[in-house]
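We modelled the chain as a single entity of 166 amino acids. Its sequence is:
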Amino acid sequence: MKIELAAAQPTPKEIEVSFPPESIDIAPDAEIIENVDFRGSMWRDSHGPHISGHFSTKVKVECSRCLIPVERSIVGEFDDLFEEEEKTVEQEFEVKAEMLDTSFADGSVDLAELLREQIVLDLPEQVFCREDCRGLCPKCGQDRNLIDCNCSADIDPRWAAFQDLN
């Protein structure tokens, strides 16, 4: 869904849309499994056009320890200010501190791409299937949550003195 920034008015225009999971690809190790619902608004002030709102979806990611699929809800909010590229200069310019929260657009914004960026930013760096996940055995690769593989752990000789401490 393309949003034309020139259509932004001082009075906020409500936007409510739902994207199917297959329309937004977020990452190779994560998959959207529920519609991405967005409810927000678009308006223009003295700084330029804004798009803000609230989004929610559900994603499937791998547990960081044992690699089994885990479902997580992603809910977030954002407020993006856009600078229309036709107003920008073709040559180099200094980026000022107040410009760091500004996105650049060529007259329109793809709302699906904007939501993809927000979902990727809200994905947790590490996901665990449960807090006490034991992960995979580094020797045999078995899931230590399911079986006790009895592989001996090789201890670095520099740390061997700590083995007897309780």
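As a brief sanity check on the tokenised model: Helices lie at 111-122. Residues 18 and 37 are 4 Å apart (CA to CA).
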